[in-house]
Design goal:
26% of the residues lie in helices and 35% in strands. By secondary structure, it is of the alpha+beta class. The strands form five sheets. Strands 12, 17, 20, 21, 22, 23, 24, 25, 26, 27, 28, 29, 30 and 31 form a 14-stranded mixed β-sheet that branches. Strands 4, 5, 6, 7, 8, 9, 10 and 11 form an eight-stranded antiparallel β-sheet that branches. β7 (224-231) and β8 form a beta hairpin.
Length: 684
């Protein structure tokens, strides 16, 4: 009896070390596996023996499940996962004849992927941390409300578009330099309303005063538009567009949440991915064979929307939003307040993702080749010429594209190679890795459309958690392929703000935003900020230049001020990031004016330079820079004469534009920037 009692005490001591979460996710599957395995073994020996075993075991299993249902679950964060590693025999190894037993290990649930990646064995995991599917029941009331509003207000919206919006659009089209006439005959939104697919609030650990919300919106509509188009190239054609489909993901981030009015310092808006926009052309449009117009419109939409896809964003400080009088009296509206609010527009990078792509192997042949295309082979090797005369797939022209959101970097093409060597390093700045992915896509270059060979997709959060320390490169398989692999490695580099009393002694980042542009004459600016070009033959790809959204307005001053004043444009709400190298000393700023003057040839360019050390020393204070005027074209006598003749011809033909600008004396332009310099912090 004493022995039995001691065995019981030992058993319960061991049993009490298991948490309820471990019992449910590890012990329970193991018990069920043993029960089913034993039943299958006994049944293979004797059919009736298996059934005799199953009857009492089912009773025991029912008692076990009742006990399991009564367990109180704890926080699953600290519960490890069970990983069984089964060694693979290697015929070339010296120890190939030795039998290795499977290994059983307990691994942290969130680190299972990294553990399996480091192992060369076949691994089976139980209790791995996985994302739970999100419930859509919580959005039913919202979509139902939108449906009711859509039914009641749809006709009113259609009337506003036809009688208010469209006349204004016609006036804008009449001012365009090209001849384009569009008559709107009918416009219908259909009965199907847009609906929310997902609203998800992220847990933000880095900043306690922020909230990030992701919204997925879909619109599979019955909308239809019937118009008549006439241009210089196309005769009058009736165009019917219907079955419009839109799928868009939006991220809204609230920054500087506080207990006092206005309760938030600002908010950011960005698109999570390139929106999917599709429509169907009616029969008349297809008969007119204007598919190229359809392709042109799609390309214009994609190119213009891309500037808002993450990591690009628009940041709106609450200080510039027209507020009610009660809240407006609390807010400071002086120049210092707007300068400080401009810092919200500056991206706050969390780090840099470094991808080192060395080579690929086993790329499938994608290109049809024949020795007839290479007559010189006949003289070098006649046998090879005749054996390879018939077209067949024998080679590929691979290149790699590394992409995060709308930012993508392309390597050079390696022609006629199935085992391509790239040896390229990518440094990609990241300001928010939540729910973002790194894509590495291998393409085969063709004359028309490049074919996708395969891709690798990694979550940025996983890279941040598991690759903060430099590791050796590994072979990784590409999806949608049989045996194509890429030899690469990742590294997450953290960033730290450089104190204004120190120097930039390592690589880093430059984050910035434009507070204002001040000119003595009308302008329509497009800002570019650049660093020195690197002649590395394409083996190091990163962001070394940045272009802002072109201004939509024509003003003398563009400032980050109250939006109701109309002195702002979208580029005031847009920030940017550039990769700094420790040898960089200055940044170049270029402002191109899209407005042309009658007495000047080409467009103006205003240029200037700022020392990086000066930016560091200024700290949080904005930088004002006086720019120098240059021109995109040489202001020679011949160019000016050609310009005058072209203006004279337009005047005689009656095709000249509206107001013509003239240059003024002593013109100047000044730009005001907010900048922050970061240095790399790499863990050893």
């Amino acid at each position: 009896m004493t022995d039995i009692q001691s065995i019981k005490e030992t058993f319960w001591k061991i049993w009490n070390t298991f948490s309820p979460q471990m019992i449910r996710h590890i012990v329970h599957p193991v018990i069920l596996l043993l029960v089913v395995g034993t039943y299958a073994f006994l049944k293979s020996i004797n059919f009736y023996l298996g059934w005799l075993y199953l009857i009492p075991v089912m009773y025991c299993v029912s008692i076990w499940c009742t006990y399991l249902a009564g367990l109180k679950m704890e926080d699953p964060k600290d519960v490890p996962a069970l990983v069984v590693s089964i060694p693979i025999k290697n015929k070339k190894s010296k120890d190939a004849k030795l039998k290795k037993a499977p290994k059983v290990n307990f691994v942290e649930a969130s680190q299972v992927c990294d553990y399996v990646a480091d192992s060369r064995d076949v691994s089976i995991s139980i209790g791995e941390k996985a994302s739970q599917p999100e419930s859509k029941e919580g959005l039913h009331w919202l979509n139902k409300s939108i449906e009711q509003i859509w039914i009641n207000k749809r006709a009113a919206v259609e009337d506003i578009v036809l009688n208010v919006v469209w006349p204004k659009v016609k006036k804008i089209l009449a001012k365009l330099p090209i001849k384009i006439k569009i008559e709107l005959y009918s416009f219908s939104l259909g009965l199907v309303p847009p609906h929310f697919r997902r609203i998800f609030v992220h847990e933000v650990q880095q900043e306690e005063d922020s909230m990030i919300i992701d919204i997925d919106l879909g619109f599979a509509s019955e909308a239809a538009v019937k118009v008549k188009i006439e241009t210089d190239v196309i005769p009058r054609v009736t165009l019917l567009v219907d079955s419009v489909y839109v799928d868009v993901g939006i991220r809204i981030a609230l920054r500087g949440i506080s207990k006092h009015p206005p309760y938030v310092q600002g908010f950011e808006v960005t698109l999570l991915h390139q929106p999917e926009i599709h429509w169907n052309l009616g029969d008349l449009a297809r008969m007119a064979n204007i598919a190229f117009i359809d392709r042109t419109i799609r390309k214009l939409i994609n190119d213009n929307v891309k500037i808002l896809v993450i990591p690009n964003k628009l940041s709106i400080p609450i200080c510039v939003v027209p507020l009610p009088r009660e809240l407006g009296s609390i807010m400071n509206t002086d120049e210092k307040a707007y300068s400080e609010s401009g810092r919200i527009v500056i991206p706050n990078p969390e780090g840099i993702v470094r991808v080192v792509l060395e080579k690929t192997a086993n790329i499938p042949p994608m290109d049809m080749t024949s020795s007839l295309l290479y007559p010189s082979v006949l003289f070098k090797s006649p046998r090879r010429f005749f054996t390879e005369m018939f077209p067949s797939k024998k080679s590929s022209d691979p290149y790699a594209v590394v992409r995060i959101g709308s930012h993508e970097y392309r390597t050079k093409t390696v022609y006629k190679e199935l085992n391509a060597t790239f040896n390229t390093t990518f440094d990609i700045p990241v300001y928010c890795p939540l729910d973002q992915h790194l894509e590495i896509v291998i393409y085969d270059e063709d004359f028309n459309t490049d074919d996708i060979i395969g891709k690798i997709i990694e979550r940025l959060e996983d890279i941040k958690d598991n690759y903060s320390v430099e590791k050796e490169a590994k072979w990784r398989g590409l999806s949608n392929t049989n045996n194509t692999r890429a030899y690469l490695k990742y590294l997450w580099i953290s960033e730290q703000i450089v104190d204004k009393s120190s120097n930039l002694d390592s690589d880093g980042l430059l984050a910035f935003s434009c507070i204002g542009i001040y000119s003595t004459s009308l302008c329509k600016p497009k800002i570019s900020i650049k660093l020195t070009d690197m002649s590395d033959e394409g083996h190091y790809l990163t962001d070394r230049s940045w272009k802002a959204i072109m201004a939509f307005k024509e003003l003398k001053e563009f400032t980050l001020s109250n939006l109701s004043l109309g002195l702002w444009d979208l580029f005031n709400l847009q920030g940017g990031m550039l990769r700094l190298l420790k040898d960089d000393t200055t940044i170049s700023i270029e402002v191109e004016d899209s407005l042309e003057r009658e007495d000047e040839v080409g467009r103006r360019k205003w240029i200037g330079e700022v020392a990086i050390q000066h930016i560091i020393e200024r700290g949080e204070e904005p930088i004002e820079l006086q720019l120098s005027k240059t021109y995109k074209k040489k202001q020679s006598f011949v160019n000016k004469s050609v310009k005058k003749l072209s203006l004279l011809a337009k005047t005689m033909l009656g095709t000249s534009g509206g107001t013509v600008l003239q240059s003024e004396e002593e013109e100047s332009m000044k730009i005001k920037l907010q900048c922050v310099v970061y240095r790399d912090v790499i863990k050893s």
